[in-house]
């Protein structure tokens, strides 16, 4: 997965991959959702909402759908009454964890 340093320095903005990465996991809520599921395991909607209390229900639902569509999280619907849905991080989503850990550490260290 490592790209040659010389090659990186010659890439254009559209080739470097940052824009694509941000389109998949960027924004205010997606990194938090991914990090939470990576660290805490499978969770239900309400547990995710409690972890991010400032997100609206509409936005959380939208972000979860997008993450599932992009195959970064898995949505399991149990088809029971009352409804039970669980979310977990996928193998593809796990590949983002080192970047999310770095973001967490950087923010913690520099938010003083």
TrEMBL record:
Key words of the record: DNA-binding, Transcription, Transcription regulation
Recorded hits in InterPro entries, A to Z, give: HTH_HxlR (IPR002577), WH-like_DNA-bd_sf (IPR036388), WH_DNA-bd_sf (IPR036390)
Q: Which Pfam families does the entry link to?
A: HxlR (PF01638)
Domain HTH hxlR-type span(s) in chain numbering: 16-112
The molecular function terms in GO held by this entry are: DNA binding
Question: Could you confirm whether the keyword Transcription appears in this record?
Answer: yes
Instruction: List the protein's name.
Output: Helix-turn-helix transcriptional regulator
């Amino acid at each position: 997965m490592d790209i040659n340093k010389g090659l990186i320095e010659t890439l254009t903005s559209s080739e470097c991959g940052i824009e694509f990465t941000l389109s998949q996991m960027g924004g205010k809520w997606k990194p938090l959702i991914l990090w939470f599921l990576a660290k805490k395991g499978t969770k239900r909607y309400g547990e995710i909402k409690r972890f991010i209390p400032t997100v609206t229900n509409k936005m959380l639902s939208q972000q979860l759908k997008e993450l599932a569509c992009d195959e970064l999280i898995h949505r399991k619907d149990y088809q029971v009454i009352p409804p039970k849905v669980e979310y977990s991080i996928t193998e593809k989503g796990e590949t983002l964890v080192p970047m999310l850990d770095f973001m967490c550490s950087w923010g913690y260290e520099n938010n003083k």
